[in-house]
Amino acid sequence: MNRHFRHVDWKLKEVPSTVTLVDIACISGKPRCREIPRRSGPLSLADGEAWLLAHFKTTGHRRYEETYSRVVQWDPPDDIDPRTILGVTT
Question: pTM value?
């Protein structure tokens, strides 16, 4: 996503040093299963996929609800230091 702010074209980018996380719940069946991983908080994508596969193999359930979380930031063009723009913080 691109936006123009303070006379600069900014791009919204994922922060590469962070990890995308996922919350998962099984929503198969009637009534819905609603089982979640037995771990507090969100999982890494690899751990989430592993739980999905294990739950599918043991239950046959195919439908899941996933919510993703990632860290993003607005970046100016490479030739501009964002700390030099009035009103911009990290």
Answer: 0.66
Secondary structure in 3-state letters for the chain: CEEEECCEEEEEEECCCCCCEEEEEECCCCCCCCCCCCCCCCEEHHHHHHHHHHHHHHHCCCCEEEEEECCEEEECCCCCCHHHCCCCCC
Q: How far apart are CA 51 and CA 43, in angstroms?
A: 9
| pLDDT beyond 70 at 4 | no
Max Cα distance, the chain (Å): 57
What's the full length of the chain, in residues?
A: 90
In tens, the pLDDT along 39-63 reads: 767 898 999 999 999 999 999 999 9
Rounded-to-integer distance, Cα 37 and Cα 20, Å: 17
